[in-house]
Amino acid sequence: MADDDEPLTLAERRVAVLVAQLQDDRGDPPERLTEQVVRTARWQRAVRGTLVIAGQVIGSLGDGLALLIDQRKRTRSDGG
Question: Which residue from 54, 20, 33, 77 is spatially nearest to 69, judged by alpha carbons?
Fold first, then answer.
């Protein structure tokens, strides 16, 4: 960053102008933003447990299949 006694470079001045424009264009949040955020958080919280359990079941099934496939490969490679 430039010290206070150093003049701004062309790039720094351009950035300062752009940032000032962004500050001026800042809009107000929607009227019901808080309500929408709370509603979204509530339904996500309600389904989270179900999704976690479903993920664990699917992961367990995948692990079981991987073990079965691995055992079949070992049996065939041993001459079985």
Answer: 77
* 3-class DSSP string for 7-20: CCCHHHHHHHHHHH
Distance CA 45, CA 21 (A): 39
10 Å Cβ neighbour count for 12? Answer: 13
As a residue count, the chain comes to 80
pLDDT digits (tens, 9 = 90+) for 37-62: 999 999 999 999 999 999 999 999 99
Mean pLDDT (whole number) for 63-76: 88
Q: What is the DSSP letter of 28?
A: P
pTM of the model: 0.47
